[in-house]
Amino acid sequence: xxxxxxxxxxxxxxxxxxxxxxxxxxxxxxxxxxxxxxxxxxxxxxxxxxxxxxxxxxxxxxxxxxxxxxxxxxxxxxxxxxxxxxxxxxxxxxxxxxxxxxxxxxxxxxxxxxxxxxxxxxxxxxxxxxxxxxxxxxxxxxxxxxxxxxxxxxxxxxxxxxxxxxxxxxxxxxxxxxxxxxxxxxxxxxxxxxxxxxxxxxxxxxxxxxxxxxxxxxxxxxxxxxx
Length: 227
Prior knowledge:
The chain has a 7-stranded mixed beta sheet with strand order 3-2-1-4-5-7-6, with helices on both faces. The protein has one domain (4-213): 3-Layer(aba) Sandwich (Rossmann fold). The chain is built from 6 helices and 7 strands; from the N terminus they run βαβαβαβαββααβ. The chain has helices at 13-27, 48-62, 81-94, 109-124, 166-174, 189-203, and strands at residues 4-8, 32-36, 66-69, 98-102, 141-145, 158-161, 209-213. By secondary structure, it is α/β, with parallel strands linked by helices. Helix 1 runs antiparallel to helix 5, helix 2 (48-62) packs antiparallel against helix 5 (166-174) and helix 3 (81-94) crosses helix 4. It is globular.
């Protein structure tokens, strides 16, 4: 059903970490879905209803055809057995080739819990003789997008050139006005996202880039697309 399943702790994390790559993948013909694990609330300026509207608007900007929410608790996200089973069921039903999850080092406990959950659910999704819905399925790879709350520079496995889709990423993030409202203090969150995209782009000779990491080796069958 899907080529790619992006799993996000909260609405807006997929856009922050890889909004440009999501748009680029779809432009290349890949079927991309996003699964938000929580509704992201409460937050200082948001509400469940507001976040739902903002998520729908951002989803429309990026043209994502499949997006669901697993309904796990925000601020208390844990890689429990029940959560693992629920996520493994989604993986078996959507059958993606690749999974994308947050980087495993982060100050936000929900983010690190999400990555542990994704890795465990990937394994569970292939099990036979179990009560999970659907047929066994094992995604080939897990890649990790950068959406960290630590002021550190990760060492990526690769950087995707999103020069052609940066404007879509920016517009999708602007949909989350309750989270990224304009403020007098600079730089704002969106300022920092833009600066990061410029810097990673410069590292590969492009105007904008998004970095990704992987715990497992990455194979290449050619060099035509290397920057």
